[in-house]
Write a structure and sequence with these properties.
Chain B: This is Putative KH-domain/beta-lactamase-domain protein, archaea. Chain B: It is found in: Cytoplasm; Nucleus. Chain B: Pfam families: Beta-Casp (PF10996). Chain B: One of its GO terms (biological process) is snRNA 3'-end processing. The complex is a heterodimer of chains A (641) and B (706). Chain A has 641 residues and is of the alpha/beta class. Chain A is built from 18 helices and 32 strands. Chain A is elongated. The model of chain B is unreliable at 47-79 and 297-323 (pLDDT under 50). Chain B is built from 21 helices and 34 strands. Among the domains of chain B are: 325-511, Rossmann fold; 574-612, no CATH class; 627-705, TATA-Binding Protein, CATH 3.30.310. In chain B, strands 9-7-6-3-2-1-24 form a 7-stranded mixed beta sheet. Chain B has a 7-stranded mixed beta sheet with strand order 10-11-12-13-14-22-23, with no helix packed on it. Chain B has a 7-stranded mixed beta sheet with strand order 15-21-20-16-19-17-18, with helices on both faces. With 706 residues, chain B is of the alpha/beta class. Chain B is elongated and about 120 Å long. Classes of the chains: A alpha/beta (641), B alpha/beta (706). At the A-B interface, helix 4, strand 7, helix 8, strand 23 and helix 14 of A face helix 12, helix 13, strand 25, helix 19 and strand 27 of B. Strand 26 of chain A pairs antiparallel with strand 27 of chain B, so a sheet runs across the interface. The structure holds zinc ion (2 copies). Residues 65, 67, 154, 175 of chain A line the site of one zinc ion (ZN).
Chain lengths: 641, 706
């Protein structure tokens, strides 16, 4: 059994996330994103690789969140390519995704009158096919496929998805954040037993310090700019970052008693806040708790921005879509504001290659060529937001370690950084890790269980405690692969409830697991006991010498009983983890039994060991069963010495 | 599995209560309160009839209340049975009636409590505050929030009464003493003691706000269809029942099969998410606990005038009934909503009539869904009639309740969810408040209410028992006004409930709302669920389909314990395939059977038992430890010589039956050894470990063993 992952997008890059996972005959498409940096066919995943008939080959589509690099190609795939099967996403994603898609569609059409890839109607029709899910809701997609969403932070409604078919199980994380932000909580997931985790790796090598300091840095930059009469442009998508920064600014404005206006470029963000209000239970604990008295998404200082206000005098803060300045209104404002050094543009930590945002971030350009005829002088301040809704490398490592899957696939990152992270996951966590490029398939083995009926006696025996006392570092420690660890000798108590039983397969009957003691009854057979016995000669002198060196103070002349005592003491000394029972005339360790034999004709006395005995030998008559073979021979060798 | 019905409940406000023993765990299903029993108490005294709105502090004017207590009591004693009047009611701080006999069960032996609806948890603080209570409480997040608000409201309404009566002197109130109870009119006594006189022990003084808080802290809140695992053994999931926001049915899956617990459910709700019966499929056992059809009169009754009751006819559907699931589904999907909407429209038209005539309307309905829908319906009707009549919600938790209904789209019906997706508020009240048509106040004496107050008006206010809360004050104010209207649910004994307000000039509409599965839908539902075992209330009649039922039915009635034989006697074990790689299969001589030893770590996880390799040390070789049969000595000799062991066979004399007579193999090469073979045992003697183990192997090959 195997899980095959065909990476159609976000393989060694960020953009157009799309992975087709085949798991025990079910095929799931995780995310259906588009690439913001391309305008040609590369903007969408290569759907032709899925096969000829999407509706027959795909079981369902799962969308993790409303960002375009995760959902941007969905209307195209359903309405133009004709996929009509089920699509799952969380309630907020279903509510907010149409806003994102519509916003993007407008930008696309407005910019250079580009031919639209999908229409408004397409978006509406596409969203009708979506089945909304709640967090942790266990959704039975069909008889065999079960999926479940877990909170991912990142943006409102972002989820990691768990999928299970038969015994094989996996998690696709989408984008996530392991630390809470102003309006969202941190990602949260159960400890699951998983064959595979496919995780984002945007910040595969970045380790971030306290969020608080980085927020302060942002607020200081904004404050300095508006205090100097400058204008702050915050290019951002209507949803997500806009709300987070707005909560941050609103709070700061109140505290500092600032009167500088904050604007939203379109009704879109205001409309978005209406959604956020109803979806408040998906935000952070702190915001959730106050919903009935004050809904955090009722922004008091925020006003609507008109195009005519672009060149109006005076300071202001403006949220303009789209983010990354990939076109539309944020580009228009940028053209006007970029030439003045009083102004400030804040950019998110990550911008897709090919956008103006990306150019601003790579180096500090003084001029940007928009196209053949347009060149923008860039003299304004650029502030890079160093807090991001993505997890950092530590967060990825923490999550992978927590989930401890058998395999990891990295997507949604940059190739060299991913390679570094991959190395860490393999060396530090010992988990097989892959970072496939687009259109590559990774195949990993999956778990499979066979079912059998277990007898009550077997189940009972498994739950009996099985205490073992051992001195770690002694010769009895298992020679496990990790034996290179330095062992500190100390007594350890372990309770390994080892399940031991017998699996019985009979033709045309269900496999059965029984306890050893039940077997013969079940088979209606009589037990035939196979034992070992050996009447072993010992040299008293040896034992006595030993005894002297140990100075246990026993009298020199020894009776049979004393001899047993002596042996017992020796055994206790040498075999630390056994329980020796003394019955007077014999000693018993597990099934091994030893007594002093005085019968001259003991049948278990063999005559061929070394003929030259100086002393009249003592005989220890031993018997044991197979289970204690090792122990028995160890004791015998001790007797003989 | 054992099942005990403690109380079959009564309607929406008093769901049934059961105890289920399964897999060694004891599960309590719901813990409600019988709030209709409050009607045997007197409401806040009617001296305040002159209205609390005019006198914002009614409790002061009634401080003398308790002093008057002696006189009516004396009068009562001399009385023989006659029609009840207001003075017959118990004039004391009310106590609350829990489920009978629940207190007889040892609380500390309850492992799990499953709460199916907000109403099902109103009695829970009584349990959770008991020392030794350690059960895990599972409740949906929505039911938990609503339940908590309902309990907090109850506590706050009770406070008003308590302030009136002052602190209690003794732990047993006067009215509970036998000589007092004896004097109660029989109809009141029946409520106090139960018909058989056994319910006295179920009365309790109300819990405190701290008890409620503590109870809520112990509850684990579940998302819709979230899988939770109790003690690694039981997998518990909640699916919407449609009765109320957050109300649910349960599936409980253990190693010995699955159980679906069906509480009162509604297929097509106009506010809560519909009854998700598909999710209940695949469970061997169904516990049917919807008693709603027992007391469904299904019409609107009116005390003062004759309204034509709405009728419905499902007979045609009933005739066509057959096993086909599709048809069954079509029966289930017959729209309950239509009829419920008619009722709402009907009520709404009477509300309009009343306000047009200058009267006010009091709606002390306790069902959240009905309140939310009536708000929408009435405000629309007001708009249509171009009436500017204010609507008030007076409740200590009203504001929070309304705010909450607008942030849980996940628990609402499809139509409401569509509102989310189109960016509109989930319920009409959001707009109504913004437009100033609806006013929400925490209490009758809120200063803002007094400023805002305007009559005629429409008031939604608790409590439906007409003994607690602001509703009492409004009723006292309007009961003499023939133009005013009171809308009641049918779960109340109207005669008793209105007793303290007589004579009533006010119009009264009592309306029954759908509160569960209609009887004719039970069979189609079961056809879809296809259980093997059905637990069904004795009092309900199953409409049998012509075909014989494929499942066995156990009928239950209160206070009887049913023992249901478990369907699977053996538990399932899953064996990891990577463990199976190491299997050393042996075929038995008699053929057809093969077996292997297996060793691993047994994991109980999510109701499944799994054997995984775990940390068990890999033993280098697998030895046979159990043998059976008797060895063929000649074959043994062949096997031995095949392994380079030479010796002579000394057979025991034939015909000797004694066990002690042994055959023996004397080995002399490679070294001396002895194999002593008896009927049921073999002893190997050798000087070296190696030789001994080769001989052991050889014997193993001529015996059956594992
Ligand atoms: Zn994202
Ligand atoms: Zn992304």
């Amino acid at each position: 059994m195997a899980i095959d992952s065909l990476v159609l997008g976000a393989g060694q890059e960020v953009g157009k996330s799309c992975v087709i996972v085949t798991i025990n005959g079910k095929r799931i498409m995780f995310d259906c994103g588009m690439h913001m940096g391309h305008l040609d066919h590369r903007r969408y995943p290569d759907f032709s690789l899925i096969g000829p008939n999407f509706n027959q080959t795909l079981t369902c589509i799962i969308i993790t969140h409303f960002h375009l690099d995760h959902i941007g190609a969905l209307p195209y795939f359903t309405e133009v390519c004709g996929y009509s099967g089920p699509i799952y996403m969380t309630y907020p994603t279903k509510a907010l995704a149409p806003l994102m898609l519509e916003d993007y569609r407008k930008v696309m059409v407005e910019r250079r009158g580009e031919e639209e890839q999908f229409t408004s109607e397409h978006i509406v029709e596409c969203m009708k096919k979506v089945i909304p899910v709640d967090l942790k809701q266990t959704v039975q997609v069909d008889k065999d496929l079960q999926i479940r969403a877990y909170y991912a932070g990142h943006v409102l409604g972002a989820a990691m998805f768990y999928a299970k078919v038969g015994d094989a199980a996996m998690v696709y994380t989408g984008d996530y954040n392991m630390t809470p932000d102003r309006h969202l909580g941190a990602a949260q997931i159960d400890r699951l037993s998983l064959d595979l985790v496919i995780t984002e790796s945007t910040y595969a090598t970045t380790i971030r310090d306290s969020k608080y300091a980085r927020e302060r840095e942002f607020l200081r930059a904004v404050h300095t700019c508006v205090a100097g009469g400058g204008k702050v442009l915050i290019p951002s998508f209507a949803l997500g970052r806009a709300q987070e920064l707005c909560i941050l600014l609103e709070d700061y404005w109140e505290r500092m008693n600032l009167k500088v206006p904050i604007y939203f470029s379109a009704g879109l963000t205001r409309q978005a806040n209406m959604y956020y209000k109803m979806l408040i239970s998906w935000t952070s604990q702190k915001i959730k708790e106050t919903y009935s008295t004050h809904n955090a998404f009722d922004f008091k200082n925020v006003h609507k921005f008109e195009r005519s206000m672009i060149d109006a005098p005076g300071p202001c803060v403006l949220f303009a879509t789209p983010g990354m300045i990939s076109g539309g209104f944020s580009l228009e404002v940028f053209k006007h504001w970029a030439p003045s050094e009083k102004n400030l543009v804040t950019m998110p930590g990550y911008c897709v290659a090919g956008t103006i945002g990306h150019k601003l971030m790579s180096g500090k350009p003084t001029k940007i060529d928009l196209d053949k005829d347009t060149r923008i002088d860039v003299r304004c301040q650029i502030h890079q937001l160093t807090f991001s809704p993505h997890t950092d490398a530590k967060g990825i490592m923490d999550l992978v370690k927590f989930l401890s899957p058998k395999h990891v696939i990295l997507v949604h990152g940059e190739k060299p950084r991913m390679a570094t992270l991959k190395g860490r996951i393999q060396s530090e966590l010992g988990i097989q890790c892959y970072d496939p490029a687009n259109n590559e398939t990774v195949s990993v083995p999956s778990t499979h269980y066979a079912t059998a009926v277990a007898s009550d006696a077997f189940v009972q025996s498994c739950s009996n405690p099985n205490f073992k006392f051992s001195t770690s570092g002694s010769e009895h420690e298992q020679g496990s692969s990790s034996s290179n660890r330095k062992s500190i000798p100390r007594l350890q108590v372990s309770d390994d409830r080892v399940a031991e039983g017998i699996l019985v397969m009979e033709k045309n009957k269900k496999a059965k697991v029984v306890h050893q003691d039940e077997l013969l009854v079940m088979l209606e057979e009589k037990k035939h006991q196979v034992k070992f016995a050996y009447c072993c000669p010992a040299h008293i002198g040896n034992l006595q010498e030993n005894q002297e060196t140990e100075s246990t103070g026993l009298p020199l002349s020894s009776t049979n009983n004393d001899m047993l005592q002596l042996l017992s003491a020796k055994l206790t000394n040498e075999l630390s983890e056994v329980n020796i029972q003394d019955f007077g005339d014999h000693l018993q360790v597990e099934s091994f039994r030893v007594s002093i034999c005085s019968k001259e004709d003991c049948p278990y006395r063999l005559s061929d060991n070394g003929g030259e005995e100086h002393y009249e030998p003592m005989f220890f008559c031993c018997s044991w069963a197979m289970e204690d073979e090792k122990l028995a021979w160890k004791v015998i060798s001790m007797c003989q010495k | 599995m054992k099942f005990t019905c403690l109380r079959k409940g009564g309607g929406y406000h008093f769901p049934p209560c059961h105890i289920l023993d399964i897999c060694g765990f004891r599960i309590l299903l719901d813990c409600p309160l019988d709030l209709s029993a409050l009607t045997i108490f007197s409401p806040i005294p009617s001296a305040s009839k002159a209205s609390s709105v005019d006198k914002p502090n009614p409790k002061c004017s009634n401080r003398s209340g308790p002093l008057d207590l002696e006189e009516p009591l004396v009068r009562k004693r001399q009385k023989v049975e006659r029609p009840l009047d207001a003075d017959d009611l118990i004039y004391a701080e009310p106590w609350y009636k829990t489920v009978r006999n629940l207190h007889l069960w040892n609380t500390s032996f309850i492992d799990v409590v499953l709460i199916s609806s907000p109403m099902g948890m109103l009695g829970l603080p009584f349990l959770s505050r008991i020392k030794g209570f350690s059960a895990k409480i599972y409740v949906t997040e929505a039911a938990a929030r609503l339940g908590q608000l309902m309990m907090e409201d109850l506590v706050s309404m009770h406070m008003e009464i308590r302030q009136l009566f002052g602190p209690e002197e003794s732990c047993i109130p006067q009215w509970m003493k036998w000589e007092e109870l004896k004097l109660l009119p029989s109809s009141l006594r029946d409520v106090a003691l139960g018909k058989d006189g056994g319910e006295m022990g179920s009365w309790m003084p109300l819990y405190s706000a701290a008890d409620v808080k503590d109870c809520m802290q112990k509850a684990q809140r579940l998302k819709y269809a979230e899988e939770t695992c109790y003690n690694s053994t039981l997998i518990i999931k909640a699916f919407s029942s449609g009765l109320e926001i957050g109300a649910c049915n349960w599936t409980i899956n253990g190693p010995k099969g699955g159980i679906a617990f069906i509480s009162s459910s509604i297929f097509g709700s106009a506010h809560a998410m519909n009854f998700d019966y598909i999710a209940l499929q695949g469970n061997d056992t169904v516990i049917y606990s919807d008693f709603s059809s027992l007391d469904a009169t299904e019409d609107i009754e009116n005390d003062h005038s004759n309204f034509v009751p709405t009728t419905h006819d499902f007979s045609s559907l009933r005739n066509e009934e057959n096993d086909e699931q599709e048809l069954a589904k079509s029966v289930l999907h017959v729209d309950d909503n239509l009829e419920e909407n008619q009722k709402l429209a009907f009520l709404s038209s009477h509300v309009i009539d009343s306000v047009k005539a200058g009267g006010s309307v009091l709606i002390p309905v306790g069902r959240l869904g009905i309140v939310l829908q009536l708000l929408e319906q009435i405000s629309t009707s007001l708009d249509v009639s171009d009436l500017k009549v204010p609507i008030y919600i007076i409740s200590s938790v009203g504001e929070e309740l309304l705010a909450f209904t607008n942030i849980i789209p996940e628990w609402l019906c499809k139509q409401r969810q569509e509102k989310l997706f189109s960016g509109q508020p989930l319920f009409g009240h959001v707009e109504l408040i913004n437009e100033g048509k609806l006013h929400v106040f925490p209490a009758i004496h809120s200063p803002k209410l007094l400023m805002n107050w305007q009559e005629p008006c429409i008031v939604f206010s608790p409590h439906w028992s007409l003994r607690l809360g602001p509703a009492v004050h409004f009723l006292q104010r309007w009961c003499g006004d023939q133009n005013s209207l009171l809308i009641l649910e049918n779960e109340l004994d109207v005669e008793l409930a209105l007793l303290p307000f007589k004579p009533m000039a006010m119009k009264v509409l009592q309306c029954s709302f759908l509160s569960g599965i209609r009887l004719q839908k039970v069979q189609p539902l079961l056809n879809i669920l296809q259980p093997k075992v059905l637990l069904f209330p004795k009092d309900l009649k199953l409409i049998n389909s012509s075909k014989s039922t494929a499942f066995s039915i156990f009928q239950y009635c209160p206070d009887e314990t049913l023992c249901i034989p478990s369907l699977k006697d053996k538990s399932e074990l899953e064996i990891a395939t990577d463990l199976a790689f190491h299997f050393d299969w042996r075929n038995l001589k008699q053929g057809n059977i093969s077996m292997t030893r297996l060793k691993g770590e047994l994991f109980r996880e999510h109701g499944k038992q799994r054997l995984i390799p775990g940390y068990v040390q890999e033993s280098s070789e697998i030895r046979q430890l159990v043998h059976w049969g008797s060895p063929d000595l000649d074959r043994l000799m062949t096997v031995l010589s095949g392994r380079g062991i030479k010796g002579t066979l000394r057979k025991a004399s034939r015909g000797s039956e004694s066990e002690n007579v042994a055959s023996a193999v004397l080995v002399n090469d490679p070294s001396q050894a002895l194999i002593e073979v008896k009927e049921t045992s073999t002893v190997i003697t050798a000087t070296s470990e190696n030789l001994a183990s080769i001989i052991f192997e050889s014997i193993g090959s001529v015996l059956d063993g594992i």
